[in-house]
Amino acid sequence: MTETTTTDVLVIGGGPAGAAAGYWLAREGHDVTIVERKYFPREKTCGDGLTPRAVYQLGEMGLADQLAPYHRYHGLRATGMGKELELQWPSHSIYPQHGYVVRRRDLDQMVALNAEKAGARLLQGHEAVQPIVDRGFVRGATVQTKDGETKEIHAKYVIVADGANSRFGRALGTFRTREWPYGTAIRTYWKTPRHADPWIESALDVKDRNGNPMPGYGWIFPVGDGTVNIGVGLLSTFRDFKSVNTTHLLDAYAHQVAERWEIDPTNPEAKATSGRIPMGGSVGPKAGPSYLVVGDAAGSVNPFNGEGIDYAYETARMAAQVLHEALVAGDPSILQQYPRMIDDEYGEYFKVARLFARVIGKPVLMRELTRVGMNSRTLMEWVLRIMANLLRDDEKGPAELAYKAAAKLVKLAPNA
Questions:
Q1: 273: helix, coil or strand?
Q2: Domain-by-domain residue ranges, the chain?
Q3: Residues in the chain with pLDDT values less than 70
Q4: CA-based nearest residue to 16, from 368, 240, 353, 297
Q5: Annotation: CATH topology of 3-72+102-178+278-349
Q6: 3 forms bridges with which residues in the sheet?
Q7: Half-sphere exposure in the Cβ direction for 37 (13 Å, CA)
Q8: How far apart are CA 402 and CA 389, in angstroms?
Q9: What is the Cα–Cα distance from 73 to 99, expressed in whole angstroms?
Q10: Of 63, 95, 34, 48, whose CA–CA distance to 390 is shortest?
Q11: How does pLDDT run across 318-333, given as a tens digit for each residue?
Q12: Across the strands, what pairs with 227?
């Protein structure tokens, strides 16, 4: 006989979004169960960098003291066209002026255990294999353990937070808008004496072993533990995107930065891992009659820079707020507020970011953007604010600034 349990909210996935949603709901006194397919600590393809938006959300979850021992950095070092610019995170009324680099195996465990401490039930090694549907309402999931045992977890509401490839979301009918950009990323770690550098680094001009320009952008995140996280990202808007070998791209970038970062490019610490990333809110619907979709499962990744961790925390918090109100009021219709909240918060910004992704997918425009940007600290400081979504309320809207920048670039190379 299949074991059956009940809970107020069942969260599918214990990563950043799932764990954060579980924390906020448990804080409100609701019975929450989080099912996570793997066991913590576990790896994830990521740059490991926490921007001020993410640091703020982690602080709101009471994790500031647990973050403090990790490597703290000041901002971004942009490199390109033989130049480099060190750009401090901007001052902001809400967000701090620093970030952290934390390996995801440590960070995700920290947030998941924090949710458990707040009262959420965390079931590791449990995979949600199919939704339980009753009269059109998702009422939980059939869950399988690593030992092959099957159980049913029934719930009033479900949060879908099982990541970029969201099998559970697809089972409910979610889909990606294929016309919108998506990305791929690959990364691994190298030993270096520069592991505690005070800047994360982004390369706007990745080159092959012969010095020829290649599509994509590179990153270097000093971890502070003797290693750096080095990776490359590639947008689907780049020409010949599907034919690019990302392993070769990472190898070329590692050789490009080897001397400066004092790494042995032929001797990484571990095998590289890669993943595909839906972006710009490209996955929907984000709400059903009794479920909400959050984080990477909803495509909540910033196309400007491939950053998803802060949007995972933020969308989870919004979802938890909506579900709390629905549980208190006994009114499932309140769930339909969630897509509107997402659109109000990110709609215009993600729209501009998707346009930007199309612009930089054209090599002529990308080179011109890099040339102009690397010759103007003021411009690059604005670009950093826009790309990291850190503009203050008293500054011009990110949409206006980004559209103006994109329009100028298009005029520079109208036939690219």
A1: strand
A2: 3-72+102-178+278-349, 182-276, 355-412
A3: 1, 395-416
A4: 297
A5: FAD/NAD(P)-binding domain (3.50.50)
A6: 151
A7: 13
A8: 11
A9: 5
A10: 95
A11: 999 999 999 999 999 9
A12: 191
